[in-house]
Amino acid sequence: MSSSDQYAVFGNPIRHSKSPEIHAAFAAQSGQDMVYRTHMVEDGLFAESARRFFDNGGKGLNITVPCKVDAFQFADSLSDRARRAGAVNTLAKQEDGTIYGDNTDGAGIVRDMLENLAWEMADRRVLILGAGGAVRGILGPLLVRNPRHIVVANRTVEKARNLAREFSELGEVRGCSYEGLAGSQFDLVINGTSASMMGDLPPLPPELLSETACCYDMMYSAAPTPFMRWAASEAAWAVSDGLGMLVEQAAESFCIWRGIRPNTAPVIEQIRASLNKSTE
Fold first, then answer.
1. Residue 1 has pLDDT above 80, yes or no
2. Are residues 264 and 30 in contact, defined by beta-carbon separation less than 8 angstroms?
3. Pair 129, 153: CB distance under 8 Å
4. In the beta sheet, which residues pair with residue 239?
5. Does the chain have fewer CB atoms within 10 Å around its N or its C terminus?
6. Maximum C-alpha span of the chain
7. Would you list the DSSP string of the chain?
8. CB burial class (10 A; 0-12, 13-18, 19+) of residue 65?
């Protein structure tokens, strides 16, 4: 291994990950001597691969699908937000050799919305589409920002209701089906489903958006996603994809590892430019 500190992102698939480019930019910006690579994890081999990485001197890992629950089980200690999310996207080797697990997804989306996009969160009526691991990771940090209420809508309504019950002590949150949204209006709608990756959209009723509604897709791509196109057609006040969240959650990981918070704005611009270039 190189004498530089070693970091990596584990997942499957992993080939198109933007994390190496993001962390290389953070390292250059802050003068950190580190190397960051991708590593595809075969089914059932996460713990073995992670143990080998840390035993060989690795300092930290980012974790993406489908390994976040494996990372949760692998960690020796957990942050409160990781414990509540039931998933880990950041592992860090401590001075005593133990492995600390955290989840920076919620911090990433909140920071992108509040700092980069200048959207309001307090007293807003929030709708989250989907009830999977991505949504579980953001619910706690969103509720801490004091929205008026959060509704989690999902095709399997019981999954949405169970998730809402788990987080109800943090604020007003309930689960329902997509059909159950009829007649409701929201000020912030977050797409936490993978439908955008499939070129699809959850079945949403008309007149779902308030006059000042913002719409956020946790997915990102060079072209607007189906959810973003729907939001524009419904005259949303503002629309964004999740590229800022990707960079902000990475910055949170970088801060955990290196004790430095990088400047994210130029990195978001850099990754956006490289995305656009890849489609030319």
1. no
2. no
3. yes
4. 215
5. C
6. 60
7. --SSEEEEEEESS-TT-SHHHHHHHHHHHHT--EEEEEEEPPTT-HHHHHHHHHHTT--EEEE-TT-HHHHHHH-SEE-HHHHHHT--SEEEE-TTS-EEEE--HHHHHHHIIIIIS----TT-EEEEE--SHHHHHHHHHHHTT--SEEEEE-SSHHHHHHHHHHHGGGS-EEEE-SGGGTT--EEEEEE-SSGGGGT------SS-EEEEEEEEESS--SSPPHHHHHHHHTT-SEEE-SHHHHHHHHHHHHHHHHS-----HHHHHHHHHHHHHHT-
8. middle
How confident is the model over 39-77, as pLDDT tens digits?
999 999 999 999 999 999 999 999 998 999 999 999 999
Tallying the residues shown for the chain, one arrives at 280
Distance CA 147, CA 154 (A): 20
Q: Exposure string (b/e) for 78-110, b if CB count within 10 Å is 16 or more? A: bbebbbbbebbbbbbbeeeeebbbbbbbbbbbb
**Average of pLDDT values for 223-248?**
96
**Closest CA relative to residue 185, chosen from 130, 235, 241:** 235
9 and 61 in contact (C-beta within 8 Å)?
yes
Neighbours of 24 (CB within 10 A): 16
Q: Which tokens sit at 169?
A: 């002590």
Helices 243-258 and 19-30 meet at what angle, rounded to 10? Answer: 50
Active site residues: 68
Give me 197's structure tokens: 């990756």
